[in-house]
Amino acid sequence: MAPPRLRVLITNDDGYQAPGIRALAPVIAALGHEVLVLAPLYDESGVGSARAGMVGRPIRTATLEENGVTYIGVDGTPALAVTLASVGAFGRAPDVVLSGINRGHNIGVPIFHSGTVAAALTAAGQGVSAVAISIDSDDPDHWPTAAAVAAEALTWIVPEPAGTVLTINVPDRPLDELSGVRHASLAPIKRSRVVGATAPTGEPMIELEPPLPNPVSDSDEALLKAGYVTVTPIVGIREVKDDAAATALAKRLS
User: Fold this and answer.
1) Which NCBIfam families would you find in this protein's record (predicted)?
2) Which of 109, 121, 179, 126 is nearest to 149 (CA)?
3) 28 preceded by a cis bond (ω within 30 of 0)
4) Which of 80, 144, 210, 234 has the fewest CB atoms found within 10 Å of its own CB?
5) Domains of the chain, start order
6) CA 215 to CA 228: how far, in whole Å?
7) How far apart (Å, rounded) are the C-alpha atoms in residues 122 and 50?
8) Whether the Cβ atoms of residue 107 and residue 221 lie closer than 8 Å to each other
9) Using CA of residue 40, residue 184, residue 191, residue 193, what is the dihedral sign?
10) pLDDT (tens digit per residue) in 115-143
């Protein structure tokens, strides 16, 4: 039996003309799926799940046609793009979301800052399963490797429970040179490469340090460094089933 034809939303945080999204969309379209490409007009890296200013205002768009695929840019964040698609602003809501291919990895606990990952979590909040996929290079040579992994991940996630989310990191290598595929834990926050710095003009700024030499075993950081595709199921904000805080606050206010 042939796989079902899906309406697949493809988004990212690098912009609708970025090479990663243009490498991914034709691969998914070639599988016979209906592809909706909807992504920010400009680079929106690091915006997390922001959707500021989305209610009650027109949203500017632009389009690009390439190899039979229409790429739509929206003046906003990846989370906004997912929201617009989910509520029917661009036709039927998507069956599944692919976010990427992101230029550069998304590893460790700080991925909640990533616009690419947040787009996938926003989809889950709408009851739609999603995959966030990133390649481990700021100037990749092997986009087709990540696109092939994304296509396989799409096939896997479709029958899973609605709202399932994976974040996947792919080494920048030919497909036949990958070490394999491994489940990976998120590298702990203490491994974050973000540090405070001062610009030459005296203003504060944030910089990224080089990767540390001994990453935590079985973390996405360590496995990616060893050449593995890392796969990590994630969830967004959810309630902690513990009323201790509310009880304590109630006592203080009574």
Assistant:
1) surE (TIGR00087)
2) 179
3) no
4) 210
5) 7-237 (3.40.1210.10)
6) 14
7) 10
8) yes
9) negative
10) 999 999 999 999 999 999 999 999 999 99
